[in-house]
């Protein structure tokens, strides 16, 4: 039996995006900073202000840096401290992920993070897509008690990973929510939902908006060589969220 409605989670890194996502009908937010790096831990200030504007659940990304998902003891300390602080500021759920050097789910570390987050629900993020064996990783997440896993089917996008996503949803048999994410747009959403049977999906639904800056210094960039344009902003677009939701309803 299909769910009565398919839930749309939008990843956001600003208050404006959060407000637009809720206005467009998102069912949940994943709050991050640095979506360019795939999402890092947001600031406490961002969570506090988002919670003032938003009624839908806000799950907070706990990821101390970009790159791989093999963490040092100090990084683990930071993640635990961040979970503690986010919980105090009203986070509705926590999004984490950690792997061993051989590509398994780091169950020991996950148990520490779950203990820190208790009683909040947990999502395992796309660290899953870097795991050596997705079927084994899924069973580990189920035994650890994760509520859901976000995955592109271990491929560069959810559309390309669709066969794996379908296999994971069949394997899960309702024991964990398998939520497709990665490059989901109005163009491919229907194929992903129909091809997988997913009941939740994840996207950023963003469109580009030009900066309001009139003076511009073209000699300076603020990040590494591969950086976001300094004078372009990407913001969740309420109308995109709305049309994704409409597609999801029609797919049922």
TrEMBL record:
InterPro entries per UniProt: CutC-like, CutC-like_dom_sf
GO terms for cellular component: cytoplasm; nucleus
Localisation per UniProt entry: Cytoplasm; Nucleus
Keywords carried by this UniProt record: Copper, Cytoplasm, Metal-binding, Nucleus
Residues in the signal sequence: none
Molecular function (Gene Ontology), one example: copper ion binding
Domain of life: Eukaryota
Pfam families cross-referenced by the UniProt entry: CutC (PF03932)
Assembly and oligomerization: Homotetramer.
Primary role: May play a role in copper homeostasis. Can bind one Cu(1+) per subunit.
Family affiliation: Belongs to the CutC family.
Name of the protein this chain belongs to: Copper homeostasis protein cutC homolog
Organism: Poecilia reticulata (Guppy)
